[in-house]
Amino acid sequence: MQKKWWHDKVAYQIYPKSFMDSNGDGIGDLRGIISKLDYLKELGIDIIWLSPIYKSPFVDQGYDISDYYQIAEEFGTMEEFDELLAEAKKRDMYILMDLVVNHCSSQHEYFQKALSDPDGEYADYFYFVKGKDGREPSNYRSYFGGKAWEPVPGTDKYYLHMFAKEQPDLNWENPALRRKVYDMMNWWLKKGLGGFRIDAIINIKKDINFPSFPPDGPDGLVSCVKMVEEVNGVGEFLEEMKHETFEKFDAFTVGEVFNMKEDELREFIGEDGHFSSMFDFSAHELTYGEHGWYDAKPVEFRRWREILFASQKEMEGIGFKANIIENHDEPRGASRYLPEYARNEAGKKMLATTSILLRGIPFIYQGQEIGMTNCKRDDISEYDDISTKDQYQVAIEAGCTKDEALRACYENSRDNARTPMQWSGEENAGFTGGRPWLSVNPNYTEINVLEQESREDSVLSYYKKLIALRKAPEYKETFTYGSFQPIYEETENIFGFLRVSKESGQRILTAANFGKEACTLSLPGTAKKVLLSNMKKESEAEAEIRTLGRLPLESCEAIVLLLEGGEE
């Protein structure tokens, strides 16, 4: 494998609206991010991905972009963005922007021009399609619920929006539109971006006949995903985009890729793939309900382990996935992947260990490093997310009580990850001197950065040790390029794997006990050194292992162990 600059990096996602507010308006901003760069550097972060900061009406929290060349006033100015780039560079850090080019905002100049002349040049930047028999062109349901077609005023045409009606889909079949997109991307890359996180990118390829499909719900509609899954050819667009943009700048790109077809992994992230990496959503896909959030099942450990291990093995000899526990579109990992008895500091450290040391690029979401959790709300009006409001309504219409529908939102809402970052135990968690745009999780008085920075045994301190271990010169090659080998797969509630260096033969075991009871495991070799423990001092754990000749693990205990054989 050809080695790339980003292979051994650790990334961190910032949701700017909720990260740090510098001016007291209740909304996080660029100046706030700049003020926390040293915090991120100390944590061990190399790459920072910013969720959208472009000008936007914020119907979908900035994923509806009205001007790709402007910074939203809420976040600051272009001068401040340039300062952020410069300050990050001083610290050897890279900034990724969010690339949202499946759709734009209905307030974008292109769409406004299209509406003013539905038969003109700009109408072809979108999908303006004649209806059939006085109805929509097809029976698609948008990702956010309801019809995916909206009438074009004063015409017999409709425009396609796979997300909100304020997010019209861009017509990638139009070469003029593609050229505009590439010019915009290169403009940002020339500023010095490290690359892009690429939003909802599979959706750019449409079947322009827009066929209807059998309904998959009582509304007579079918998810727009069905059309995406049935059409071929997205790779041609992605290859063109790569050659016209990323490739010229040696940029790092990470794709949000759902609905990829079988056997396409190498095309997407192989040696010469469309992207550098793509998020591993295999665990997230376990959480889908058949009809919505209200009938989603809790994540079962054995299945979770099985699907993550399969995803790791799938990558052998191909490339790197981006490993996540949570992001801005998911609830908090500590509330989703840990059983009730493990939702404590030891459990959060254990979950971190089993994610950060996998093969691939670790992506940490803001607040994950202190163990932030889901946030209970008493009424749907307390949520700000369009998707949550839709899912609440779906639950109510399915016969759920208000409490049951709110419970589904508590367990699944994206707003769980969007509550303000908990910097301190001061009012509003030290996020803002004003009124936060989304109320802070009340547990900020117990879970916050300031308190954890003062404690050697905190979740934050452990994340620093974990990242430092991954990057340590004597182990970096193994953690970056070493193979992934599952172990203890037949042992209930144990998440175990070996990382084995192809160069030196170095073997490092990670083992974690997600069960309620203690257990003792046989070792796949002779223990040489305990590199990290989430519960004991490394020397104590080492003495215990040497005495027993086996590996004892308490409930919620995780151990990283260097084995004999190969070079240190």
Provide structural commentary.
- By secondary structure, this protein is an alpha/beta fold.
- The protein has 3 domains: about 10-105 and about 175-460, Glycosidases (TIM Barrel); about 110-160, Oligo-1,6-glucosidase, Domain 2 (Oligo-1,6-glucosidase, domain 2); about 480-565, Immunoglobulin-like (Sandwich).
- The protein contains 20 helices and 22 strands.
- The strands form 6 sheets. It has an 8-stranded parallel β-barrel. The chain has a 5-stranded antiparallel β-sheet with strand order 16-17-18-22-20, with helices on both faces. A 3-stranded antiparallel β-sheet has the order 6-9-8, with no helix packed on it.
- α13 (about 345-355) runs parallel beside α18 (about 460-470).
- The longest helix is centred in the first third of the chain and has 17 residues, at about 175-190.
- The model has no long low-confidence stretch (mean pLDDT about 95).
Overall domain count: 3
- What do we call the CATH homologous superfamily of the largest domain? Glycosidases
Radius of gyration: 24 Å
Mind describing the biggest β-sheet?
Answer: 8 strands, parallel, barrel
CATH topology category name of the largest domain: TIM Barrel
Strand content: 15-25%
Unreliable stretches (pLDDT < 50, length at least 5) are: none
Helix percent reads 25-40%
Please give the alpha-carbon distance between the first and last residues.
Answer: 22 Å
The overall pLDDT, averaged over residues, is 96
Broad CATH class of the largest domain: Alpha Beta
The count of helical stretches stands at 20
Strand order of the largest sheet: 1-2-5-10-12-13-14-15
- Which structural class matches the secondary elements? alpha/beta
Shape descriptor: globular
- Count of individual beta strands: 22
CATH architecture of the largest domain: Alpha-Beta Barrel
